[in-house]
Amino acid sequence: MQTFSEMLSKPTIFKERNVLFPDYIPDVLPFRQAEIERIMRWVSPALKDEKPHNILIYGKTGTGKTACVKVVKKKFDEMNSGAILAYVNCRIYNSRYRVLQKIIKDYLPELDKAGFGVLFMYEGLMAWVQKKAINLVLVLDEVDMVKDLDELIYSLTRSNDELKSGSIALIGISNKLTFKEGLDPRSKSTLYENEMVFPPYNAEQLQSILKQRADMGFGEGKVSEPAINLASGIAAHETGDARYALRLLLKAGEIADEKGLLYITDKEIDLARKTVELDVAAETINTLPQHQQIVLYGIAAISLEGSRYSKLAPQDEEGTFILSGEGYEAYSKACRQFGRKKRSARWFREYLHDLEMLGLVTMIESGKGMRGHSRLIKIAYAPAQVKALVEKNLIAR
């Protein structure tokens, strides 16, 4: 058995491993300078003791939304003004209470005591903003994860009506393009002063991003051009996700280390793809709301058992589609199994749409040869693995 010393002394292809992680932000963020400047313009009034705009930023995962806002935050903080740009990760702080608690903990630690309710923290925050005349810009990353989101948005944005000095503005970041459709009209009217959609990166842009990180992470010439092209092509074809492309590069480096290689080729990228796809899918599934996980569980279960209508549904090299009605029956059965109250067929269709947006299922409309008009569904990953993962999550909850 190897010791840590032996492991650490072993030659490695990595020069600086940390730069290959998605949360690393380089000094120059390629292809997002226009977006950075636009956000800077919108928050700049806070630096002049004026109320800035509320902003909603949305787009698919890995399009640079969080990275751009963090670049803006760094520049904002360097101004040393009385204004504050605060960042909250709503995947962790996923309720109005927790968001307020996070702000209190970071900026008003004297009020950070167990047992205080939402109203106490809200009033403490308002008193602090008004007394210090602070222009607070609050970044809510993955804002759609907040359970009581309408209450949070409405209370914080309407708080400006109560403040005699200082102000509060919000920057919401969401991976869901349909996020705004679920908001209360009052929340929409306050949050939607400015909107920005981040488009996915194309293959050429991903090539440049990967080349930049490869040179930093491994050293110039350590990653072959075909390897860069394959990784960027795979990521562009999937979602245009820079995070996914970087994961491929990082995993390929780990494979090269295991094999004692000093050069990464497209072969290592291809091997990395199989592992990374499952890792990304698992991360996505773990963060889904319960009912979306149950829908996925039902589809996975019926995919393993076999559809009753397999002779009617089309097939491809990756398996058979199931009918939407059959999927709803499987969802209803899974709800009973996990002790959850099932939602309506309309909600089921909404969940399917979200799962399709995340790339976890594929859907097509039925063609000729089938009675009526039905939506056909197919799970995008190995159903046995998806079923086991969801089952573990739901039992744990």
What report would you give on this structure?
Helices cover 50% and strands 11% of the residues. The protein folds into three domains: 165 residues, P-loop containing nucleotide triphosphate hydrolases (Rossmann fold), CATH 3.40.50.300; 84 residues, Helicase, Ruva Protein, domain 3 (Orthogonal Bundle), CATH 1.10.8.60; 109 residues, Winged helix-like DNA-binding domain superfamily/Winged helix DNA-binding domain (Arc Repressor Mutant, subunit A). Strands 2-3-4-1-5 form a five-stranded parallel beta sheet, sandwiched between helices. A three-stranded antiparallel beta sheet has the order 8-10-9. Strands 6-7 form a two-stranded antiparallel ribbon. It has 15 helices and ten strands. The longest helix has 21 residues. The protein is of the alpha/beta class. The mean pLDDT is 87. 38% of the residues are buried. A hairpin with a 2-residue loop joins strand 6 and strand 7.
What is the residue-mean pLDDT, rounded to a whole number? 87
Uncertain stretches: none
The secondary-structure element order is HHEHEHHEHEHEHHHHHEEEHHEEH
Strand-pairing-aware structural class = alpha/beta
Indicate the radius of gyration in whole angstroms.
Answer: 24 Å
For the biggest sheet, the summary is: 5 strands, parallel
Number of helices: 15
**Overall form:** globular
Strand residues, percent: 5-15%
Q: What number of domains?
A: 3
Largest sheet: spatial strand order: 2-3-4-1-5
- Under CATH, the homologous superfamily of the largest domain reads P-loop containing nucleotide triphosphate hydrolases
CATH architecture of the largest domain: 3-Layer(aba) Sandwich
CATH topology of the largest domain: Rossmann fold
Number of distinct beta strands:
10
Oligomeric nature of the chains:
single chain
